[in-house]
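Both lines are quoted verbatim for reference:

——
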Amino acid sequence: MATLEELGYNFSIEILNAKYFGVPQNRERLFIVAWYKNLVKAESFHFPYGIDSKRNTIFDKSIVAECARPTLVSDIFEPKGTIDPTFTISDRMWAGHKARKERNRKNGKGFGYSLFKDDSVYCSTISARYWKDGSEILIDQSDLGLNPRRLTPVEAGRLQGYNIQGAGWENDTPNKPTEQMPYKIVVSKKEAYQQFGNSVAVPVVKRVALEIVKQLLS
């Protein structure tokens, strides 16, 4: 911040969460918007904190949790009948996840797998290591008598807001991205998970960019 000031910039800093922008992911990231005082005369920048059910911007941080567009984890799902069985984790891996979580619990640590259902309102933050064991986001399949499964690469991309057609959509969700052409995944599963885990949440960045245009460049 001191360096930005020294270089002649005004700036605004805020932590934004993707779960308030129409994607079912609890992903907090720090955003900095800076503008050169000699070129842009604005004194401040007002961050968007989310979008409501009509895709209007929410600027009041105190109401974002109640007013944000509702989401479900199943909003990103490919049709269940199309999911390859290899995405269901093995008995050995599932036993390892449970044993590790219990061991960490006894040691006073909160680390371990996270399990989510179709109707969970959001899931954990996806990371670049997701390809290893999927532990941060496992989808419950107990109703089918199966171990949990990983997200598919298509679902991992959708979790970041990318419009990826894949095998289609499990739900006709209003949160389906429509403002971009569908993407195709042309790399390996491992590479796709790494890229999506390292990505930004597209709806957050698009909304911030929109407000930069409106507030600073118009």
